[in-house]
């Protein structure tokens, strides 16, 4: 579900490889995300361009990942959000706690600064 | 044109996606002759999705009936089952009618219930201003919050043994 596409000394780029991120996948996603954060000990950037829908259970997994990342002195950032997904994050104000980039290139440019 | 249509859900997580698409396709066809902004289907999709999650995770029964009603410029989504009573309802006897009670706060939101009668609770949400957000205190369970924010009115009623969640969205 989470595929590492690039390992940089400061960050990991990973792609979320599901379209409908709902209850059926949230537990597995949370396990994979927390493992990735623990194992790599770096900032994780999730490319979510394939994701057309997220539900509350998946958002909960993202928030759990963010807590884990920040608690360890790292971060969890998102890129490539489709309009409905971005609108949902804005609706419940999670855009105020996640760093969100238009695409992977924009995220990398910000992280490289 | 006023319309009403009901659908039976089997409360299985594996059915969420197909059932949600079935309801949304119905809505799209029923709304063809109604003027509405682009946000309506966005709101309906997330309300339906979270009510389905609620059915799978909390109903404790094998069947839930969803009813979509379009009437007088309002879309109403009802979720009805005869399963487990919402735990918050157990606290309702201690609440005063019409007085909001805070049930969740995390710096981004405050979620309240108001007892409207012995059988009816309504939910509403407030966004605190200038509140310090502590990431470690953020809530990870956001289903009721999403519905309360997407709907113009969101209620829960219990008339033993029937649980009914009702979300209403103004079409205009």
Helix content of chain B: 25-40%
CATH topology of chain A: Transcription Regulator spoIIAA
**In which order are the strands of the major sheet of chain B placed?**
1-2-3-8-7-6-5-4
Report the C-alpha radius of gyration of chain A, rounded. 13 Å
Spatial separation of the terminal alpha carbons of chain B: 15 Å
Query: How far is the first residue's CA from the last residue's CA of chain A?
Result: 29 Å
Briefly note the structural class of the backbone of chain B. alpha+beta
Could you spell the SSE succession of chain A in H and E letters? EEEHEEHEHEH
In terms of DSSP E residues, the strand content of chain A is 15-25%
Q: Main beta sheet of chain B, described?
A: 8 strands, antiparallel
Q: Give the uncertain stretches of chain A in residue-range form.
A: none
**Radius of gyration of CA atoms of chain B, rounded to a whole number:** 16 Å
Beta strand % of chain B: 25-35%
Instruction: Please give the oligomerization state of what you see.
Output: heterodimer
Known CATH architecture of the domain at 3-80 and 162-170 in chain B = 2-Layer Sandwich
Envelope shape of chain A: globular
Specify the biggest β-sheet of chain A. 5 strands, mixed
* Whole-number tally of structural domains of chain A: 1
């Amino acid at each position: 579900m989470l595929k590492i596409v690039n390992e940089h000394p400061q960050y990991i780029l990973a792609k979320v490889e599901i379209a409908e991120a709902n209850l059926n996948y949230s537990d597995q996603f949370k396990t994979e995300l927390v493992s990735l954060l623990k194992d790599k000990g770096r900032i994780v950037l999730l490319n979510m361009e394939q994701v057309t829908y997220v539900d509350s259970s998946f958002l909960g997994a993202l928030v759990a990942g963010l807590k884990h990342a920040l608690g360890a002195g790292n971060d969890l950032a998102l890129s490539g959000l489709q309009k409905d997904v971005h609108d949902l994050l804005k609706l419940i104000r999670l855009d105020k706690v996640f760093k969100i980039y238009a695409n992977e290139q924009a995220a990398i440019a910000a992280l490289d600064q | 044109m006023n319309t009403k249509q009901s659908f039976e859900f089997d409360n299985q997580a594996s059915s969420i996606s197909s059932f949600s698409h079935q309801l949304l396709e119905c809505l799209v066809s029923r709304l063809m002759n109604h003027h509405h902004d682009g946000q309506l289907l966005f709101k309906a999709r997330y309300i339906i999705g979270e009510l389905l999650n609620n059915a799978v995770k909390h109903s404790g029964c094998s069947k839930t009936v969803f009813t979509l009603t379009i009437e007088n410029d309002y879309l109403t989504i009802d979720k009805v089952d005869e399963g487990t009573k919402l735990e918050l309802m157990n606290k309702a006897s201690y609440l005063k009618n019409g007085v909001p009670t805070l049930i969740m706060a995390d710096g981004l939101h405050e979620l309240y219930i108001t007892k409207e009668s012995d059988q009816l609770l309504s939910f509403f949400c407030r966004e605190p201003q200038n509140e310090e957000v502590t990431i470690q205190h953020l809530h990870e369970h956001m289903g009721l919050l999403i519905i309360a924010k997407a709907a113009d009115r969101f209620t829960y009623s219990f008339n033993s043994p029937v649980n009914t969640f009702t979300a209403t969205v103004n079409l205009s």
